[in-house]
Amino acid sequence: KPKKGGGDNGAASNKGAASNNKASGADDKRITAEGAADGEGQENNSRSSGTDNKKDDKTVSLFSHLPQPKHPTDQHLSSISSTIDNNLHPAVPTLGHLYQTHSLLGGNARCRAMLQTFALLLQSYTPPPDTRDFRVDVDHSLLKPAFQYWTTQCRPHSVSMGNAFSFLKLAVANLERDLEWNEAREILLESLEAYVTERIQYAGKAISRHAGSKIQEKGDVILVFGRSEVINRLLLDAALTDGKTFRVIVVDSRPLLEGRDTLEILSRAGIQCTYVLLNALSYLMMREVTKVFLGASALMSNGSVLSRVGTACVALLANSNHIPVLVGCETYKICNRVQLESITGNELGDAEEVAFTDCARVGPSNRWGEEKKKDGSVLSDWKSQPNLKLLNLMYDLTPSSAVTGIVTEVGILPPSSVAVLLREMNPDSAFKGTD
Known about the structure:
Helix content is 48%, strand content 11%. Helix 3 packs parallel to helix 5 (134-154) and helix 6 packs antiparallel against helix 7 (181-212).
């Protein structure tokens, strides 16, 4: 009996141990299940956050590498000292605001305004008394902060702005170290004034003279696209100075509708004009047009032309109808970069300009921050549409095969001679990197 009782006690202890093991195993399983549930929950959260990010991302994937456009805010000018640099001159964010809101458009206008702002900065700047080399101080404390602010906080710089900024940096580096600052400042101001006069103003006059020789005395029908300062100048000179009689077809496109500025300038000068949008181009090109004059934002070394989006459509259609295409471009806009398409290098505009069905130029500084009228369309609330993305490209690339001639201050050149012109103008820096 004692042995039997001992056996019962042993069996009971074994059963208790087994039940404890089962309980601990159940606890382990429960803890494991909870951990798995927590891990799955975290994974689901990460997936959902990734999905939300994808839903919030309204950028077309093909152009996701391009910098996103900056949106001006009401505190743009007042908070600049705390966001960028306390020593930044007030003229810098003021000009940046004009860049950002598209109140200042055009390669010549943007470059001229930049150089005028640099002249203002130089006039109000004095190097620290303990500086060893004022050239380094001017470059790093005055020029670079302003240019970087415009480029990173407002809008990517154009090729013309980049070339002009490189010219100014080279002018600073070529100064004698022992010069007094007042004398060095006068030299820099004279260099800036000479650059604007020779590379922009005189170049525009020369281009007007060269391209104007291609306009007949009577009967020409000239097609232009958008707005170009140099093209408007040559048309005004041909009509008012040379007394030639011709008609101009102004082709325009949304959202900027820059052709309205061209239409106003030419019509006030008494030139007969016709205003159409880009979708009516094919009919006009086949019926009436005798010549096409186009502006350029940049001229690549392979002869391709970077200009306002829509320019390539005009040039290609004119080329298919055997109509000569002349591109007016100053030599300071020539870039030693080779570009074959409009995807790698371009600029994104604000998508709201595409969604806004009215003209984007109605109030360039007021269209952000104002409540748009809900018209019930998909575009009025496009950001909440999961399957809708808007794309607003600023430039396109016209291949050299669609261009008859490049009109510069040097003369009318074929696109294949751009590389030769670049080498002759910059023998030391040609084909050594980009702008």
